[in-house]
């Protein structure tokens, strides 16, 4: 870049710079520039924030070049190779080298002393107010601030990560899975630690999410390490339903849970399926217990339903009566079907009606 270095402010009126110093020479502000042809080689331009482009830095000084014609643009050296780019007149403050005159030694010394004093004060102010963008580096987070126009990919207030820098010194930024873009340093500022923390905070769990309990400061019936599903949600806590856990007193702070990983979600779902199997089995056990029998204790004249059609001639869903017990096999006689090839095992049968509960001799309960 052909950005001029070591340009200092010599005079400022009501916040507007009216004179600068560069390479030992004083340059004063030029008013009344109507077109590019009014510019003289060697003039120095101060680029405004609104005029900053890929070739120029905002609030920086560049050397101007003479331009013929009535163009409303001023040409500035944008690269070390002499390349020049144009910027509109109304977006540049132009300075021209002041004519030198012979002055007495005491007067000259006074002027030099005054200039040096102003330079010291301005340097102190510039150091204090130096834009944060000058210290930006890869890995820093920045915030997009209002800059006169908005980008298509990002919006004002977005927190972005600097992933690199272009050749012109502009940072390359990226957020989430959105594409990278380069930014004018006038468009961004370094994010505070609080802003970064807020942007990086995990999303708040919602009803239906699978979460892992990470702490328990409210004496919840959920334990650290439990995996459960978020139920009812309130302002600061949510009910987390853990497989096999208690269904009361199971409130957990959002700050003491995190979203489960895919592997943890699978672990939770496997636990749910296993619990369903156990519950179903317990329900079946209770049927036999209530009848005064052991689980799967089948007897002659019991009415049963076929649940597995392998190894015999009966069909799944057939309902029949146990008419014979032979070792671990049960002959099930089904009305309308041959009484042959109908030996089954207990695990292939589901009880419909115990023999002692039948009220007729035809298999009806």
TrEMBL record:
Protein name per Swiss-Prot or TrEMBL: Signal peptidase I
Lineage, top ranks: Bacteria, Bacillati, Bacillota, Bacilli, Bacillales
């Amino acid at each position: 870049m052909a950005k001029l270095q070591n340009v200092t402010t010599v005079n400022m009126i009501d916040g507007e710079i009216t004179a600068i110093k560069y390479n030992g020479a004083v340059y004063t502000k030029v008013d009344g520039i109507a077109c590019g042809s009014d510019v003289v080689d060697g003039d120095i331009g101060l680029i405004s924030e609104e005029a900053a482009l890929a070739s120029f830095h905002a609030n920086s000084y560049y050397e101007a070049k003479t331009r013929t014609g009535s163009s409303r643009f001023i040409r500035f050296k944008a690269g070390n190779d002499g390349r020049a780019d144009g910027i509109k007149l109304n977006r540049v403050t132009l300075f021209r080298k002041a004519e030198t005159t012979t002055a007495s030694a005491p007067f000259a010394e006074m002027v030099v002393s005054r200039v040096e004093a102003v330079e010291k004060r301005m340097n102190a102010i510039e150091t204090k107010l130096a834009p944060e963008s000058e210290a930006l580096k890869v890995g820093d987070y920045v915030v997009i601030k209002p800059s006169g126009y908005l980008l298509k990919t990002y919006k004002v207030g977005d927190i972005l990560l600097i992933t690199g820098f272009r050749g012109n010194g502009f940072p390359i930024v990226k957020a989430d899975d959105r594409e990278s873009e380069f930014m004018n340093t006038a468009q961004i500022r370094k994010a505070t630690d609080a802003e970064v923390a807020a942007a990086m905070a995990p999303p708040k769990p919602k009803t239906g999410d699978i979460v892992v309990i990470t702490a328990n400061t409210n004496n919840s019936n959920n334990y650290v390490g439990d995996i459960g599903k978020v139920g009812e949600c309130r302002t600061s806590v949510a009910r987390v339903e853990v497989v096999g856990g208690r269904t009361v007193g199971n409130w957990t702070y959002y700050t003491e849970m995190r979203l489960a990983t895919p592997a943890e979600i699978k672990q939770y779902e496997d636990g749910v399926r296993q619990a369903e199997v156990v519950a179903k089995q317990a329900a079946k056990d209770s049927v036999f217990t209530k009848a005064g029998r052991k689980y799967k204790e089948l007897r002659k004249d019991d009415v049963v339903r076929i649940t597995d059609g392998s190894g015999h001639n009966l069909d799944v869903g057939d309902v029949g009566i146990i008419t014979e017990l032979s070792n671990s096999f049960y002959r099930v006689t089904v009305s309308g079907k041959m009484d042959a090839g109908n030996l089954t095992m207990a695990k292939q049968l589901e009880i419909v009606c115990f023999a002692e509960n039948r009220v007729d001799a035809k298999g009806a309960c």
